[in-house]
Amino acid sequence: MRQNTRQKILEAGAEIIHLKGYNHTGLQEILQATGVPKGSFYNYFRSKEDFGLQVIDFFADLFASMAGEIIRDESLTPLEKIARMLDGFMDFFKSKDYAYGCPIGNLAQEMGDLSPAFREKLKRAADKMVDTYRGLLEQARIAGEISADLDATETAYFIVSSWHGALVRMKIEKGQKPLENHKRFIFDYVFRR
Amino acid sequence: MRQNTRQKILEAGAEIIHLKGYNHTGLQEILQATGVPKGSFYNYFRSKEDFGLQVIDFFADLFASMAGEIIRDESLTPLEKIARMLDGFMDFFKSKDYAYGCPIGNLAQEMGDLSPAFREKLKRAADKMVDTYRGLLEQARIAGEISADLDATETAYFIVSSWHGALVRMKIEKGQKPLENHKRFIFDYVFRR
Q1: Candidates A163, A173, A193; nearest CB to B123
Q2: Nearest residue of B to residue A164 by CA position?
Q3: Which of A21, B65, B82, B99 is a good FRET partner for A55, with 20 to 30 A between their CA atoms?
Q4: Which positions 92-111 of A are in contact with B (Cβ < 8 Å)?
């Protein structure tokens, strides 16, 4: 029960922060969305900041579980897995009318200059995303799908960072184009060099 | 004098919004930074939203003027102009300890889902940035610096969008790496295909 309440607050609060940002989301709004009294909130989170930091872990876990499912699919080659991940995110954002964006990217943009605690946690979360792509690129190299001289770490870093930019553009474009443009340049130029 | 006061409010407010975001910046804070009374603010701006929208124009003009100076430099080839622009932004962000990021990208991320008025204005501002690179890429194609089959519009769109992602990463990295990584992938993979 205790774990359920904590999870309920995290899920509802994460969705509001995902859409509106951290600073623009009031504690009161999170409490109202979950129907949990303030005192109960403080049983699970020391402060709004502590809550925000735990929301980052919540999102990092979500990414890992979405990616993990695709990575375990043995019917796909490593590059097909990367394509499937990007396509999966495209479907997700289409279903959300191209709102939200990546919560890790959003919070990096909003909080990177304002809070060292957020910055450190977001860096670790972004590094985990990079690691996911790096692992797939190393497999792709072994499988001969990409050139042996393509640096897996640098390329993974570029995929994640340029993806975050595509999502920024998506939020004003309200369409698939920036995400498709990102995938095309990664596959047609970086992978097929 | 009238124009000066308006400009003074715009400059000071733009800097605060650039660092803290639109929603997290109070009107009171802008007034304090400029030393202008509330009544005077409303002589120039109908509302905080109207101010925010004019701040977007302010930043778009700033980008155009920075880019314009480089574009007019006849000693540089078109691709050298693109390199100079990216290097110039790197120097700027280094001098700011890798804070701030691109105000257009920041506001797109923050306001894209929250305000149709911001969305429209930001889309126009981002399109102008794309146009700047598109023009240089068309000249680069004519000069034979890039392959004739590289689509100038799509490529310019990718440069701007992936650049915004590099800046998101910069804000948690607090270093040059994401900006250098962006430039390297654009020049080594997209341009030299």
Answers
A1: A173
A2: B165
A3: B99
A4: 99-101, 105-106, 108-110
In a domain, B79, yes or no: yes
- Percent of chain A, pLDDT > 90? 97
Instruction: Name the band, by pLDDT with cuts 50, 70 and 90, for residue A66.
Output: very high
DSSP A101: -
Instruction: Answer whether residue B80 is part of any domain.
Output: yes
Chain B residue numbers touching A21 (CB-CB < 8 A): 21, 23-24, 110
Residues in chain B within 8 Å Cβ distance of A113: 19-20, 99-101, 171
Tokens of B169: 């990463």
Is the pLDDT confidence value at A170 over 90? yes
- Say whether B168 and A169 touch across the interface (CB within 8 A): no
Label residue A26 by pLDDT band (50, 70, 90). Answer: very high
What is the Cα–Cα distance from B159 to B155, expressed in whole angstroms?
6
| Average per-residue pLDDT for chain B | 96
Q: Which residue does chain B place closest to A156, by CA atoms?
A: B181
How far is residue B165's CA from residue A169's CA, in Å, rounded to a whole number?
A: 10
Three-state SS annotation for B65-80: HHHHHHHCCCCCCHHH
Asked if residue A56 lies in contact with residue A107, where contact means CB atoms within 8 angstroms, the answer is yes
Contacts for A38 with CB less than 8 Å, ≥ 6 apart: A27, A31
Give the pLDDT score at A1.
54
Whether A20 is in a domain gets the answer no
Query: For chain A, how many structural domains are there in total?
Result: 1
Q: What would the pLDDT profile of B108-117 be if each residue is shown by its tens digit?
A: 999 999 999 9
User: How many Å apart are CA A161 and CA A190, to the nearest integer?
Assistant: 14
Q: Give the CATH number of the domain where residue B64 resides.
A: 1.10.357.10
What pLDDT, on a 0 to 100 scale, did the predictor assign at position B192?
A: 86
> Where in the sequence is the domain holding B133, given as residue range(s)?
50-191
Amino acid at A121: K
